[in-house]
Description:
Blueprint: H1 2-13, E1 18-27, E2 39-40, E3 42-55, E4 60-65, E5 70-75, H2 85-99, E6 107-113, H3 123-138, H4 145-160, H5 167-174, E7 179-184, E8 190-194, E9 200-210, H6 217-231, H7 242-247, H8 254-279, H9 282-299, H10 305-317, E10 321-324, E11 330-338, H11 342-357, E12 362-365, E13 373-375
Parallel strand pairs: 4-6
Antiparallel strand pairs: 1-3, 1-13, 2-7, 3-6, 4-5, 7-8, 9-11, 9-12, 10-11
Helix pairs in contact: 2-3, 2-4, 3-4, 3-5, 4-5, 6-8, 8-9, 10-11
This protein binds alpha-D-galactopyranose (GLA).
Alpha-D-galactopyranose (GLA) binds at residues 31-32, 34-35, 122, 164-165, 167-168, 326-327.
Amino acid sequence: MKEQVKQKFAELYGEGAVCYASPGRINLIGEHTDYNGGFVFPGAVDKGIVAAIRLNGTDKVRAYALDLGEEAVFGLREEDKPSQSWACYIFGVCREMQKRGGKLGGFDTVFAGDVPLGAGMSSSAALESTYAFAMNELFDCGVDKFELARVGQSTEHNYCGVNCGIMDQFASVFGKKGNLMRLDCRSMEYEYFPFAPKGYKLVLVDSRVKHALVGSPYNDRRASCERVAKVLGQEFLRGATMEQLDAVKSQISEEDYKRARYVIGEERRVLDVCDALEKGDYETVGKRMYETHWGMSKDYEVSCEELDFLVEVAEQCGVSGSRIMGGGFGGCTINLVKDELYDTFIAKAKSEFNAKYGHEPKIYDVVISDGSRRLE
Ligand code: GLA
């Protein structure tokens, strides 16, 4: 990918570009907990975004999206927001760096990616982190790594309309080969967990469906959580118990109740998984993954028929753990599979899904990799 990006850059804008890269992510468990001040358990993957960049001495950015074959030209003032949605990510990152004191100028750039779009692996965070990291270096902004992750998150909030949490950008910036990370999204403390379960594989099964839902279902979920936290007199749902939730049941809607119930349960599951991982008890890890799935499906209502089907196939094959990954409404399942079941499971998931939905899911073996970096 790096060679293709460099070559296109040379063709369009000349020599002398420097390359940067940032990955997409997986998340073992802890879904929709980040904006509730809870724990997440992500890791960076070996798929991401690569960008070639060179300063151009003007006040304009010329950006070329290799995968789309499209160019956008825009300035760096608030009123210069480009019309192409992909370019808004780069523009947003530049604006957020400026808000943090960065003195940015124009640059030329070409980028490409291999994070499957809509798979729930956070291609957008990979894009944001790439440019946040690069701008910080190239314009010597002196922004620390946490703040770089926040630059990506604020880009989503302020320029892309998604009130996301910090997980994806954190994972993309802080990723470390062979390690998952447990992040406490309230204190922002984090810990690396070497992850190489003996006798198991982590594999993603990508349904290749993405349901376009009316309105903003992600922001709706977040708003429900915030409403319930407010009724409970807390800043976040984090730390609330089921007893506390039941005590306010009559003051909140049935929908908000179910959503909060999912989040409170998920909090517990992440901590259980940490304990289980320390003991090497992968069967418990897997059980919690299934519970997360059905919580996301029935209570949080962010799954869909195709993903429920894939999880059922995993259950029938005796796969240790399986669940929808990421924000929801399509994308892939993450599966913890014993080595000896891997081939049967993959074959069955492909053929049964194909028979029912008319196309095969895509399979990605998870390779846990490094975060944002400059490519030499
Ligand atoms: C999306 C968001 C994250 C997180 C997940 C759900 O990926 O960007 O902040 O909320 O959904 O866990």
